[in-house]
Amino acid sequence: MFRCLFLILLILVFENDGILFPQRNEYRHYDQLDGLWTFVREPKNSYGVGLENKWHLVDLEDFKNATVMPVPSAYNDITQDINVRDHVGWVWYQYKFYASKQDTEYRTFLRFSSVNYYALIFFNGYLIGNHVGGHLPFQFEVSLNFNSLNKITIAVNNTLSHDTIPPGEFKYLHQTYPSGIQVYPPGFFELTPDFDFFNYAGILRSVYLLKLPKSYIKELKIAAYGNGNFSYRINVDTNNSGDLNADIVVTSLKSRQRVYEGKGLQADVNIQHVELWNPRGYGEPNLHELEIHLINNQTNQIIDIYREKFGFRTVQVTNDTILINEKTFYCKGFGMHEDFELHGRGYNPVVMTKDLNMVEWMGGNCYRTSHYPYSEERAYEADRRGIAVITEVPAVGMRYFTKPIQKLHAQMISEMILRDRNHPSVFAWSLSNEPASDSSTARNYYSDLITLTHSLDSTRPVTMVLDTYYSTDKVADMLDFICVNRYYGWYANTGYLETITKSYIGEIYEWKRKFQKPIIQSEYGADAIAGLSQDPSIDFSEQYQVDVLIRAHKAFDFLRANGSLAGEMVWNLADFMTAQSTSRAVGNHKGMLTRTRQPKMAAYVLKKRYETLENVVIGKDKKNKP
Ligand code: GCB
């Protein structure tokens, strides 16, 4: 039954045509509907009791098992009930509100910034849409009731299967001893996700009631380069209200000067002497603001305003290196997760700010949104702070390269690009983490997706994060630069510290030699349980994590010096929760920080390295052979 429903969802998959971050200004407003929503959980892996019984038509708060759930938050860690934590299947959320009289002046939309994984959205008793995949925003227009309560009901399903991205594996187990004792209860299954992070589910980011003018600015695409070339495209929902135009002003946020004024829904111009956006350590992350006044040509009245911050900068890729503004950019980075105690992957400005402060404290200039796009607020903060970002689509551990999966993957890529393309901090798109990219089906599958990504955004390089080997990989040659995950001294040669440096040098050098593209060591590291002290070091001790890092860094310095490495990202910024397994002691402990963001010994080693690492080294001494 659930499979059938999923197929229907796939067919219905939401065609997203551009989505702007909510803004409150002279012409547009919003209510943030965050708070305590009514919450009801269906039985584990149920066939869809709620759908069958039309729960969207009733008041969920009347149910005996109803409770409340904070939004935004994952629901998993909020109660003391193991069945809530480990739930598989449908949960229901409901929220009721009265509309204000002034809202009649607007068109109204419900905007969901992230609901993980499938969401069916009902409004005042009707299904208004659905979304698949989590981590990316979607919105639907709604007509408000003005004389009675409005009711939002959301059915959310977190189930992972072969047909989902990321994938998961269902294993149904039966065992009966000759005595007749049955080990597993009827219908028992294990669900093993093909990824190493807890499958936090629910309404993970804010929900908005958007109030937009009758004709409004719907989509905005900005491209701004280091040489001052600037283009924008505005897509408008005209609501059949005739001839619309736009007045445009670009202001430097540094000098507060207007650097451009123009007219039109699109333009390609050159703006002289712009202050560039630079990553940290390479100059200031200067931003500009594009202000759009949407004008009705008949009445000459302003009918909508939208303001977007952006930056002038150029990203290029050579055989050896990634250039930002024609300077070699060496990524001193982090793999991360949106993860914290209690709210799981739910958006929290405190955690986000602390995380970015810790990236800066350690001297980092870069991160990857492993393994899904992070919140929109974080992308704006990365712009402001000058942190360069590889934004990754939610496609981790891909094993099944079918057409329906590819269609869903393509949908997620386009939603990600529509959401994030105006951020100067985003310098590349990652299309997967550790796919089975050593098969020819993977090659065909990714070839289409790489072409699609380039066609949606020709201004940024495309990469993928690989854990295959240079000798067998079948996609690396199609990428603009290559990210490689490897854990020498941890998953390979555990305990043999003396092998780490040569292993990295040997392998990365071959990737470079074979593909002649920039290589980023996108994950490396070791688990350390905070406070576990062992000298000489033993795996899981803080000293062991330090020992692994120091030896990896020795290799990276050598590789950088001969032009074979374009960046490094330690795994991970902080400890994070995972599914249960014998190799995970209450989550993954490869963090430089504990889960509550306190530094481990390794954090100081990395801080010293990142603070003292010269910015531009690549290609200095190409004769330096391993
Ligand atoms: C990886 C994965 C990451 C894991 C990490 C680990 O290669 O990309 O999701 O958490 O290894 O610690 O095993």
Task: Describe this protein's structure.
Residues 245-313 form the Glycoside hydrolase family 2 immunoglobulin-like beta-sandwich domain. Belongs to the glycosyl hydrolase 2 family. By secondary structure, the chain is an alpha+beta fold. It has three domains: 29-159 and 199-210, Jelly Rolls (Sandwich); 215-310, Immunoglobulin-like (Sandwich), CATH 2.60.40; 315-612, Glycosidases (TIM Barrel). Helices cover 20% and strands 29% of the residues. The chain is globular and about 75 Å long. The structure holds (2S,3S,4S,5R)-3,4,5-trihydroxy-6-oxo-oxane-2-carboxylic acid. Residues 196, 433-434, 467, 485, 523, 571, 588, 590 line the site of (2S,3S,4S,5R)-3,4,5-trihydroxy-6-oxo-oxane-2-carboxylic acid (GCB).
Please tag this protein with its features:
20% helix; 10 helices; binds (2S,3S,4S,5R)-3,4,5-trihydroxy-6-oxo-oxane-2-carboxylic acid; alpha+beta; glycosidase; disordered C terminus; 6-stranded antiparallel beta sheet; Beta-glucuronidase; 32 strands; Ig-like_GH2; 626 residues; 3 domains; Jelly Rolls; TIM Barrel; hydrolase; Immunoglobulin-like
Category from helices, strands and their pairing: alpha+beta
CATH class annotation of the largest domain: Alpha Beta
Radius of gyration: 25 Å
Looking at the structure, the CATH topology of the largest domain is: TIM Barrel
